UniProtKB/TrEMBL annotation:
Protein name: Mini-circle protein
Annotated region described as Disordered, given as residue ranges: 1-33
Residue spans of biased composition, Polar residues class: 1-12
A Pfam family of this chain: MST
InterPro entries, A to Z: DinB/YfiT-like, MST-like
SUPFAM superfamilies noted in UniProt: DinB/YfiT-like putative metalloenzymes
Domain of life: Bacteria
Organism: Streptomyces purpureus
Length: 186
């Protein structure tokens, strides 16, 4: 017997997908968004939702499981990491002193991802709060070429960087989820 979980998916139409198109909340009927900003926001929301979907249905132990030793990466660690990254991005564009790190020293976001439901709940709350803060700060600027914050980063660059970060970590989440319970899909 192998300790590796059997591969599986809930999809029946396309067996390599996470869910059937009719059941996938990322599938939208109609035309794609109008304009560059709406397109960037749509992609960002899609990756945010994908991360949530990859974590859905798992308990605290499964979310905290480090599936690829010696890495400290886990699905819960990814949620915590992205909360920390959202705070960093908000710090890049806000006036005044930067807000302190959420989890402390470097890599504490991953190292502190332990199998405790209160840690899981706090991680999701942190992520939602930090996403909302960064989104609100950027909502004040519709010009994607505008330069914001002390570093003068272009809003467009920040939006693309956010998409890249979530997309990269959704790829990690694919592999981590498959190691946890065998579930596969895009």
């Amino acid at each position: 017997m192998s300790s590796q979980p059997a591969r599986w998916t809930q999809a029946t139409v396309y067996p390599d997908m996470w869910a059937d198109p009719d059941d996938d909340p990322r599938e939208k009927d109609g035309a794609s968004p109008e304009g560059e900003l709406a397109t960037l926001q749509d992609f960002l929301e899609g990756y945010r939702l994908t991360l949530r979907m990859k974590c859905d249905g798992l308990n605290a132990e499964q979310l905290a499981r480090r599936s690829v030793p010696p890495s400290t990466m886990s699905l819960l660690g990814l949620v915590r990491h992205l909360a920390e990254v959202e705070r960093d991005w908000h710090n890049w564009i806000r006036d005044g002193d930067p807000l302190p790190k959420l989890y402390g020293k470097r890599d504490a976001d991953f190292e502190g991802a332990v199998a405790d439901q209160t840690v899981v709940d706090a991680a999701y709350a942190d992520l939602e709060r930090e996403q909302a803060a960064t989104d609100a700060a950027l909502a004040a600027t519709e010009d994607l070429g505008a330069r914001v914050g002390k570093e003068g980063i272009a809003v467009r660059e920040l939006m693309v960087h956010r998409i890249e970060e979530y997309a990269r970590h959704c790829g990690h989440a694919d592999l981590l989820r498959e190691c946890v319970d065998g579930r596969v899909g895009q």
